[in-house]
Amino acid sequence: MTSTPNATNWTGALRRGAERALPPEKLLPETQPSYVASWIYVFGALTMAALGIIIATGAVLAIMGPTWWHHSSTGHFINSMHLWSVELFFAFMVVHLWGKFFMAAWRGNRVLTWVSGVVTFVISIATAFTGYLSQTNYDSQWIATQAKDGINATGGGALFNVLNFGQMLMWHITLLPLGVGILVVLHVLLVRHKGVVPPFAETKGGAK
Amino acid sequence: MTKAPKRFNPDRDVAPWTGPMRRYDIAKEVAICFLVVAVLTVGLAVVFSSPDDQAVTLQQWARETPVDFATTAIAELDGTSGTAGYGGPYNTASPGQSILGVSPSKIIGVHIPVDAAKDFVLSPVAALPDHPAVGQALLTYGAATPSQRAAWDAAYETAIANPAATYREGELVVPSGNYGPVGVIIDALTQMARSGALDTTMLTEQRFFSTDFTKPLLFMSDGNYLANKAAIDHLQGDQWGMMNETGSWPGQAWLWLYTMWYQVPGLSTSPNADLQVWAIMVVLTLILACIPIIPGLRSIPRWTRVYRLIWRSHYAAQR
Amino acid sequence: MHGVATAPFRLDALVNLNHPNHFIEWGWLSISRSNAIVIGLMVVTFIAAVAVPFPGQGDADGEEAQ
After folding, report:
1. Residues on chain C touching B48 (C-beta within 8 angstroms)
2. How far does B302 lie from chain C, in Å, by closest CA?
């Protein structure tokens, strides 16, 4: 039974808007433009893969609690995986950023893709920071007592108390990962919606 | 009236692609990337593990460097410690850092009240049961005039700073002087810390649960124990510490630019350094986000021609 | 016990990094050896990513653009 679109139905409008922005063939295409032929293109996916490992290992640490890793060798190993996946995450993300910069990937109305990437970078740094504060060891103590001065100077310390372990742990495992997750989804959907940025048009003597 | 079409700007605009497509399996790419990163992560964890320097306790601090502990305690009592003179969000002792005449911490005010003398010294010691001498010392101190208290505090501060001050046979040994009940109070606090009781008392403030370590951490950071340990691993602010890690593990390389400003002469010694560095980093982050709309900056990719390498198969096919 | 303490039952790393780092210093610049290696590897990786040919160049079989 076919139905004509109901102008006042929010659900239908939402669905039609989503289908227009991202028809299934655009969301999950089996082809890419022929210029997508460089290893640099892989670094977005590598960054997301590292994020997946961070979340998986973080989930195990969450299941067992924040001090488990100090007295369990398995826990310490999971913590090591969590740390190294974070190092890989930032390394891949920055290489991805360098690549996107040199491709001027903001061209053709892709400014929001670039901006969402930068915001993801910043929120990731905040997430990592609260992670270091959540280690319940000397490093957490030192980082907290040092970082408090910068944050207090801005007035932010009145709300965001880096010496409050409980608060920092909750930001680290709920609020900030949610922020990263939402931004990453937005970023990827924007790439799918706009397509991968085409190359500079070459003329004799340089790009046009 | 129709808007005039924008002039094509190669650093901002690009024509939509109408050329050939190629087969590409994104799901396979993501799956392979996941496997590669998982193997890399496991490998790095097996080979290098991760650091875990045990947290420092007030007990450890008071046992290993009791004179430094007592020196910090008297500074809290007489208001000369870092925390006592900090300003917002802990107290109003200082206007805090300012930039362009504005002090955000002063404007926002006190939201995490900390009274250094009471929270770090007098209240914990008052929690000690069955110590008549300590109870009497607290009463004497509380009943004295502010100037009398200041005189006792100053005398004890001088005494503990004397190179002869030491800890021997279960008590602080300082040159004699007129410090009234202050010696008994500081001694009691030191004993309490060495027993481990101060860690719990200062954290829980005689409740049961707490996950807020503000007071023990502020107290400990007013002394030298944490900082001396940090210096060994180059973790201090003027050692590029923000990007370093304990031991020989890599740290937070992505903080290189933030920590760099703390090494710059002029900024590094500025009383408003933290706020100034924050402001610089906010501006630089905004610039990073706005590169697409900043002429000149957004032309660098075209000028440097790194894209010629990335898209070389495309340009070869076009020729 | 002061100094560096480790978890009692830790799976031993193949390479022990539990000692103070080495630092490369040049004037006011100072970078730990491990951070320098990480950053160096990132630069090498970026150069390799843009320089090393990507496989499957022959797949551009002229399908209509979508």
Report:
1. 13-15, 17
2. 15
Q: How many CB pairs under 8 A join B and C?
A: 108
The structural domain count of chain A equals 2
- Asked whether residue A114 falls in the same domain as residue A80, the answer is no
Interface A:B, Cβ pairs < 8 A: 281
Q: What is the ipTM of this complex?
A: 0.94
In this structure, the answer to whether residues A62 and A127 fall within a common structural domain is no
Same-domain pairing of A111 and A182: yes
- Asked if the structure places residue A94 within a domain, the reply is no
Chain C CB contacts of A76 below 8 Å:
7, 9-11
Q: Which residues of A touch B54 (CB under 8 A)?
A: 70, 137-138
Residue B85: count other Cβ atoms within 10 Å of its Cβ.
14
Q: Same domain for A116 and A145?
A: yes
Instruction: Tell me the nearest-neighbour CA distance from B154 into chain C, angstroms.
Output: 31
Element counts in chain A: helices (H) and strands (E):
9, 3
Residues in chain C, how many?
66
Which of residues A54, A87, A120 is at a domain's end?
A: A87
Judged on CB neighbours under 10 Å (0-12, 13-18, 19+), B80 is middle
User: pLDDT tens, A62-89?
Assistant: 999 999 999 999 999 999 999 999 999 9
Whether A139 and A183 share a structural domain = yes
CB contact under 8 A, B41 and A208: no
Query: Are residues A138 and A182 part of one domain?
Result: yes
* A76 and chain C in contact, CB less than 8 A: yes
Give C38→chain B minimum CA distance, Å: 7
Task: Decide if A69 and C63 are in contact by the 8 Å CB cutoff.
Answer: no
Query: In angstroms, rounded to a whole number, what is the distance separating the alpha carbons of residues B212 and B226?
Result: 19
pTM assigned to the model: 0.93
A5 preceded by cis ω (within 30°)? no
- Per-residue pLDDT, averaged over B263-268, amounts to 90
**Across the interface, do A77 and B45 touch by the CB < 8 Å criterion?**
yes
Chain C residues with CB under 8 Å of B36 CB are none
- How large is the average pLDDT for residues B176-187? 95
Within-domain flag for A31: no
Radius of gyration of chain A from its Cα atoms, rounded to whole angstroms: 21
CA B177 centroid distance within chain = 37
Q: Is C30 helix (H, G, I), strand (E, B) or coil?
A: strand
- Domain for residue A115, yes or no? yes
Beta-bridge mates of residue C30: C25
Instruction: Tell me: do A119 and A168 sit in the same domain.
Output: yes
Tens digits of pLDDT across chain A (208 residues)? 556 778 789 999 999 999 999 999 999 999 999 999 999 999 999 999 999 999 999 999 999 999 999 999 999 999 999 999 999 999 999 999 999 999 999 999 999 999 999 999 999 999 999 999 999 999 999 999 999 999 999 999 999 999 999 999 999 999 999 999 999 999 999 999 999 999 999 865 556 5
Q: Which domain holds residue A182?
A: 103-199
Residue A98 lies in a domain: no
